[in-house]
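Q: What residues go here?
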């Protein structure tokens, strides 16, 4: 009965472990046998095991060889049985690794890590985001979820690709949504704006339903859908159309167009916005005084949040009040 239980357990373990145990069994078996058959040439069990592993792996150093007829017969059996098993094991492992890599590239392997960032949708915005993360936070664990890609675009970035519809629970669970720290939902701009926003909201609902505490950043194209995205569970809503329209407007109507405007935007990509609760010693002080204090920290004070309203570049003489939130711009490096 005990032997039957061991036999059943043997066939239930993964095939690679099963093959490894089989290889170890034969190596130890032939190592013990050769030690018993030729104790003069293989005085210890270790010498027998060493000969078995070297012979079975077809390395054949020749430092230990059987000299008797019985010992050579054991060697022949070792080469036929043990050598074949070792070769089959190596082929199986190599084939498994290649299959694993292929399935990983196709996005079929579930992610097992924790505290990671999930980026939904492959487009120029997500590509640029991954580039920035790689440059400034190279240790960050990223999972890309997309339904249109056939193979992972992981050429210059380090992330795991999950192929599937991000609005489905099955896809999000393969991305290990329950253990994620952030989810960024980018808008599918190949669709009409209304349809793209509806899809982003649907994905937001699916993510929030599976993880009630994860921080969700949702990109929305139309202003009318912002409230729906927040109701769906988005912590932050990015209005990409409004942002780009504002940039276009300022570039057209500034008195002297800034020629290297693209360089300015590139510099902004290396900056980080920070939010602080106003320190007690700065309550009642002017915005200028507070700005000077942050300059010492190599941070630029650009505005305050007061009663839910953001005031960008307020007058320097503005007096700061209790419960004000300070917004600064700091270098990522």
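A:
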């Amino acid at each position: 009965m005990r032997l039957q239980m061991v036999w059943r357990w043997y066939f239930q373990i993964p095939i690679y472990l099963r093959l490894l145990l089989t290889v170890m069994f034969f190596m130890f078996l032939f190592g013990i046998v050769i030690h018993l058959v030729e104790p003069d040439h293989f005085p210890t069990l270790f010498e027998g095991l060493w000969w078995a592993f070297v012979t079975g792996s077809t390395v054949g150093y020749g430092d230990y060889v059987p000299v008797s007829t019985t010992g050579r017969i054991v060697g022949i059996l070792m080469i036929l049985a043990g050598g074949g098993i070792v070769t089959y094991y190596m082929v199986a492992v190599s084939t498994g690794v290649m299959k694993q890599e292929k399935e990983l590239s196709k996005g079929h392997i579930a992610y097992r890590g924790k505290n990671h960032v999930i980026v939904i949708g492959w487009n120029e915005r997500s590509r640029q985001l991954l580039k920035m993360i790689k440059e400034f936070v190279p240790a960050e664990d990223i999972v890309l979820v997309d339904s249109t890609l056939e193979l992972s675009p992981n050429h210059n970035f380090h992330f795991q690709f999950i192929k599937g519809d991000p609005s489905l629970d099955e896809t999000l669970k393969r991305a290990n949504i329950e253990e994620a720290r952030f989810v960024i939902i980018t808008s599918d701009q190949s669709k009409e704006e209304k349809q793209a926003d509806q899809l982003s909201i649907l994905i937001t609902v699916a993510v929030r339903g599976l993880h009630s505490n994860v921080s969700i950043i949702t990109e929305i194209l139309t202003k009318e859908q912002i409230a729906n995205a927040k109701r769906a569970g988005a912590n932050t809503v990015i209005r990409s159309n409004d942002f780009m329209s504002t940039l276009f407007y300022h570039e057209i109507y500034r008195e002297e167009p800034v020629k290297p405007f693209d360089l300015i935007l590139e510099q902004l990509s290396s900056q980080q916005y920070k939010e602080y609760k106003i320190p007690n010693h700065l309550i009642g002080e002017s915005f200028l005084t507070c700005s000077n204090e942050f300059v010492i920290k190599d941070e630029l004070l650009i505005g305050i949040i007061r009663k839910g309203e953001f005031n960008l570049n307020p007058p320097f003489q503005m007096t700061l009040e209790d419960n004000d939130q300070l917004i600064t711009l700091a270098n990522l490096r």
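A: Context that may help when evaluating the design: DSSP finds eleven helices and ten strands in the chain. The chain has three domains: 2-105, 117-243, 271-333.
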